[in-house]
Amino acid sequence: MGIRCDGIKRYPSFAVVSTRSGAGAEGAGASFRSAAPRPRCYNERAMFGNLVNIRDFSLLAEKARQGRLGDLVSRIARRGASWDHTAYPLRNWWDIPDVMDRWNLMISGDAKVDYCEHFMRRYCAGGREMSALSLGSGTGFREIELAKSGKFKRIDAVEIARPRIAYSRERSDRAGFAGAINYIEADAASVALPDGSYDLVIAEQFLHHVSPLGPMLGRIRDFLKPTGFFVFNEFVGPSRFQWTDAQLDAVNGLLAQLPEKYRLRWKSGSVKRTVHRPGRLAVTLYDPTEAVESSRIVPLVGETFDVVETRGYGGTVLQLLFADIAANFLSDDPETERWLATCFAAEDDLLRSGAIESDFRVGICRKPRG
């Protein structure tokens, strides 16, 4: 079933222009300029309002090449993701050190100061004997950082997966914080905790897995003391990963320019050529909680809290671009550094122009008075 592309707003794709002569990578000293827009219709293989997208079968084939088909089948069979894993392959944008530095720079203004340290320096400089709650604590890194600060007498970490709690506890013991963090095995979306108990509640890549979102934010507000803070670090982009035409144009324009050695996928070695808008059914089958209300996070947070500070840190282009190929950008050789700078500049230009908005955002919020 074909769907016409009439009336779809398009942004120019990008072409790399070399500013250096001679041999070497096309991206050496590269900058970006607008190229003639290439007509694309990202809905041409979509059916039923992109409930199903034929291109999803190419992703299925890639998962098979990567040896991940068993994981996909088990996810569908149990109707959801398993959060038992504690190790991650080097295949995502956050695995690139330069990307992490970029996040920090966009959030705190210092490439070596992350959002949590920024918060504690600015809003908790004189704080001591505070209490903190981490929702969906994962593998325990953030809670150890809170313990290291020396500002908290109580740190509660809520995590649904027992293997992750065991891993986090062992990790905190090795870091010298045995017993300093109270791990609670529970679903963070429904855990019973006393109201008015915490100076700080942190949600790191947790809210975009929650629905209904409004009541969850109300519960977080209630957990806080009257002077408490809520800090979130979240994917706030399109719900169910329904990427915009603008970001797909940008990502695919960059992919077309990257040398092939940078586009080889993790494990399979196949060449990444395009990114498409996944069918909503495929996203839901893979993980029913994935990005379920992500596009509503920012407005609902604004309705529930007094937002003191919020910073976007991109990812609208870079997350999609580097997915499955991030391991190719770990070298600090000049060519790789130049390509990274070129990709960063492309996303920066689009963010500045308003063609796209950040898909990832940090927010620092206070409990409303009264």
Q: How does this structure look, described?
A:
The protein is of the alpha/beta class. The protein has a single domain, classed as Vaccinia Virus protein VP39 (Rossmann fold), CATH 3.40.50. The chain is 34% helix and 17% strand. It is built from 12 helices and 11 strands. The protein has helices at 56-65, 69-78, 97-108, 115-123, 141-149, 162-174, 213-223, 245-257, 280-286, 297-304, 318-322, 334-353; strands at 14-17, 31-34, 46-47, 52-53, 130-135, 152-159, 181-185, 198-204, 224-235, 306-312, 360-366. A 7-stranded mixed β-sheet has the order 7-6-5-8-9-11-10, sandwiched between helices. It has a two-stranded antiparallel sheet with strand order 1-2. Helix 7 crosses helix 10.
Keywords:
370 residues; alpha/beta; Rossmann fold; 7-stranded mixed β-sheet; two-stranded antiparallel sheet; 12 helices; 11 strands; 34% helix; globular; disordered N terminus
Number of strands: 11
- Class based on secondary structure composition and strand pairing: alpha/beta
Numbering strands along the chain, what is their spatial order in the largest sheet?
A: 7-6-5-8-9-11-10
Q: Approximately how much helix is present in the residues?
A: 25-40%
Number of helices: 12
Using only C-alpha atoms, the radius of gyration works out to: 22 Å
Q: Write the H/E string, N to C.
A: EEEEHHHHEHEHEEHEHHHEHHE
In CATH, the homologous superfamily goes by the name: Vaccinia Virus protein VP39
SSE layout and pairing:
Layout: E1 14-17, E2 31-34, E3 46-47, E4 52-53, H1 56-65, H2 69-78, H3 97-108, H4 115-123, E5 130-135, H5 141-149, E6 152-159, H6 162-174, E7 181-185, E8 198-204, H7 213-223, E9 224-235, H8 245-257, H9 280-286, H10 297-304, E10 306-312, H11 318-322, H12 334-353, E11 360-366
Parallel strand pairs: 5-6, 5-8, 6-7, 8-9
Antiparallel strand pairs: 1-2, 3-4, 9-11, 10-11
